[in-house]
Amino acid sequence: MSKPIAIVWHRRDLRVHDNPALHQAVSAGHTVLGLFIVDTEALCHRDMAPARVYYLRESVNELQFAYQKLGGRLSIRQGNPVEVLKSLVEEVGASALFFNDDIEPDTRKRDDEVLQALKIPVHLCADLLLHPPQTVLTQGGQPYSVYTPFWRNWSVRVKPKPAVKPDRLVSPDHPLGHFPELVDLGFHFSPNLLVVPGEAAARKQLADFCTQSIYDYDDRRDAPALPGTSLLSAALNFGTVGIREVWQSTQQAWQAATHEDQRRNLTVWQQELGWREFYKYVLFHFPRLAEQPFRPQFAEFVWDEDQERFERWCRGETGYPLVDAAMRQLNTVSWMHNRLRMVVASFLTKDLLINWQWGERYFMQKLVDGDLSANNGGWQWAASVGTDPKPLRIFNPSTQAQRYDTQAHFIRKWVSELKDVDTRSLLDVERFLPLERARFGYPVPMVDHKEQQQIFKERYRQVPKRSDFEQSSSD
Ligand SMILES: Cc1cc2nc3c(=O)[nH]c(=O)nc-3n(C[C@H](O)[C@H](O)[C@H](O)COP(=O)(O)OP(=O)(O)OC[C@H]3O[C@@H](n4cnc5c(N)ncnc54)[C@H](O)[C@@H]3O)c2cc1C
Measured from the CB, is residue 383 less than 6 Å from ligand 1? Predict the structure, then answer.
C-alpha cells in the first residue's frame, strides 16, 4: 500500500536541516511534497526591499534542488495561499499539511484562514523561536515587556535540539514550477550583498563564525569597520538556518573554548539571539506594536513632517559623516551595522525630529534582513517609545564616531569624497569647518545637534509620565 501524502509548506524555513515541519511529516510516515507559494500580493509592494526578494528567490531555488538531491520534489506555485493549498490538496490527494509557525500578525491571520479552509489535518509546528512565546511568562502569568527579566527566565531554560534532517524523501509526481524572475515581479536588483543566499552558505557562515569570530564578538561587535558580527540576520529571517542549530553551535563553541574571556564574548552573542527572540515574543503578545508605540502616550508625540530633511537622511547627505557613511552602506549593500542602525535611528528621530515610523519603513524598503519584529523593536527603542526601561537615549554622532570608528576607516570607505580629510575633522562635526567641507564637496551639518536635542527634550517633556524623563541619559 502506498504511503499517505503530506504537503510541507515552506515559508520562513527555507532549509532541510533542523526543520520541524519536514521532520515531523517524514517521521509520521508520509510521502512528502514540498511547497513554496509565491504570494505576489504579499511580495510585490512598495515596502519590499528588492534585496529580500532576491535572497528569497535564490534560497527557494536552492531548496528545490535540496529536495531533489534527497530524492523528493518541491513544487513552486504562484497565487493566494489559501486557494493554492486547497487546490493542491485536491490535485495530489494529500491527507495532511505541515508547516512551521510564525508570529507576525498578518501571517497569523492568514494561517488561521488556512486552518479554517482545509478539511485535512493541519500540523502547525513550533520552529521560529527556541521557546514558544506562550511558555515564558512572569510569576504572575503575564508576558514580559522588559528584556533583562525576560532573558533571566529564557536563558536558563533547556534549549531544544535541532530537528533531524531526513536522509531521503519520497514525493508524488508533480510539476516543479518555478519562482518568477525578479523583473517579472517588478523588481530591479544588481546583487551586491555581503551574504550569499541559501541554506548551504548560511550553515557554512554559522560554522565559520562559531569556530572563530564568536570568541571575540563582544570586543569587536561595535566597530563598524571590522568584520566582527556574524552577518547571520538574513539567514535567520528567511530560515536558511534553524535557530536550534544556531544555539547548538554556540553550545559546541562553549565546549571548545579554552579560556573564560572567550566564553564571555560568546555569551554576549547568545544575548543577541535573546534580543531576536524577545522582539518576536513581544510582537506575538502585543500585535498592536506593528502600528503603534509600545508606550501609547507617544502616539501623540509631535513629529516634524519634513520630507526634504527625510530624503537627505535617506541619501546620506546630512553633513554628519558617520550618519552618511551608514546610510550609504545601507543603500549600497542592503545591510547596516547594528551600532549604526542605532546611530542613524537616533539621528532621524532626535536630531531631525522625524517620526520613527518613516525610518522603520525606509529600512524595510532597503534591508536584506528586514524583519518586522526586530526592525520595529529597534526603531521603538531608538525613538524612546518602546519597551526600554531607560527611555531617553540620545546618541551624539561625533561621540559615537570617536568611540567606534576611531581611525575613521568606516567613514572614508563609504563617503568617498571624504577619503583625504584628516581623522580629527571626520570624527568631530564642529571641527570640520564649512570652507574645508566645501573644498571636498561635502555639505555643512543640516541641523545643530545640541539645539535639536533641546527641542526633542522639550517635546518629550510635554508627553505625560514625567518620571520617564527624569531617567534620561546621553550616550
Ligand atoms: C533601528 C534598528 C533596526 C533594526 N532592524 C532589523 C531588521 O530589520 N532585521 C534584523 O534582523 N535585525 C534588525 N536590527 C537588529 C540588528 O541591527 C541586526 O540584527 C544585526 O545588525 C544583524 O547583523 P548580524 O547578523 O551580523 O548580527 P550579530 O551581531 O551577529 O547578531 C546575531 C543575531 O542576533 C539577532 N540580533 C542582534 N541584535 C539584535 C537586535 N537588536 N534585535 C533583534 N535581533 C538582534 C539577529 O538575528 C542577528 O543576526 C535592527 C536594529 C536597530 C537598532
Answer: no
